[in-house]
Design goal:
mainly alpha; Rhomboid-like fold; 10 helices; 2 strands; 72% helix; rod-shaped
Length: 241
């Protein structure tokens, strides 16, 4: 879990994706005046909006919008990569694309941009994995996420102007679905714990004595009784003679 490769991924991927978001925002905001986000954002239920399923989280409308998503995205993505080193690529891709698909199908007929939907999906995945997996580390991560990001739940309420509350709500739904879907795909420490538990159960089930110990003793007593009786009969026949 603390391998150099995993530590490199924890630093490289969350910060790399955040760097892409910042570069895209700077190029769009200062060179194109927001035209890229308007064109490549997620337009619900329109053919032109299909690229936005993947690209919309990279675009932001202002510096405030970008900064409000930066720290939560890096920290939650870092937790995902650190605590789920085997699963994180599939989980992140599933949450990213799945949230986009849900917003594309169910969202209001406006242009949706920003990484907040992915942030909500990551928070929900980490929180609910602690419930579905029942692993000690997953529970600790879940409590940590709930402590620091539990207040985000208000973001799913409708009626907030300029905020894609559907992205927040559907990201939350996608995170829960992801946590449930991947609940049985264990990480290395979970596999080791399962093997240790199975070995302990086998030791408990193994009898202290061999299963036929008392059966053997019973047979021996029966044999001894048979020969003793036969001996008595022989002795009686001898005396009668």
């Amino acid at each position: 879990m603390l391998s150099k490769r995993n530590l490199k991924n924890v630093i490289q991927w969350p910060l790399g994706l955040l760097l892409i978001m910042w570069v895209v925002f700077i190029v769009d905001y200062y060179l194109f005046g927001g035209l890229l986000s308007a064109y490549y954002g997620l337009h619900t239920r329109e053919l032109a909006g299909v690229p936005g399923i993947v690209l919309a989280p990279l675009f932001h409308g202002s510096w405030g919008h970008l900064l409000s998503n930066s720290l939560p995205f890096v920290s939650l993505a870092g937790l995902l990569v650190f605590f789920y080193p085997r699963l994180w690529p599939r989980v992140l891709a599933s949450l990213w694309v799945g949230t986009g698909v849900l917003v594309f199908v169910l969202g209001r007929h406006v242009t949706h941009i920003g990484a907040s939907g992915v942030v909500y999906a990551l928070a929900a995945f980490l929180a609910f994995s602690g419930i579905f997996r029942r692993d000690f580390r997953a529970v600790v991560v879940a409590l940590l996420v709930l402590f620091y990001y539990g207040g985000m739940i208000v973001g799913i309420l409708p009626g907030q102007e300029g905020i894609s509350w559907e992205s927040h709500l559907l990201g939350l739904v996608m995170g829960i679905l992801g946590a449930y879907t991947y609940r049985s795909e264990l990480e290395e420490h979970e596999v080791a714990a399962e093997k240790k538990k199975a070995a302990k159960q086998r030791r408990i089930k193994e009898p202290f004595l061999e299963r036929d110990t008392f059966a053997k003793t019973k047979r021996e007593r029966e044999n001894e009784a048979f020969w003793e009786k036969l001996k008595q009969l022989s002795e009686r026949e001898r005396l009668e003679r």
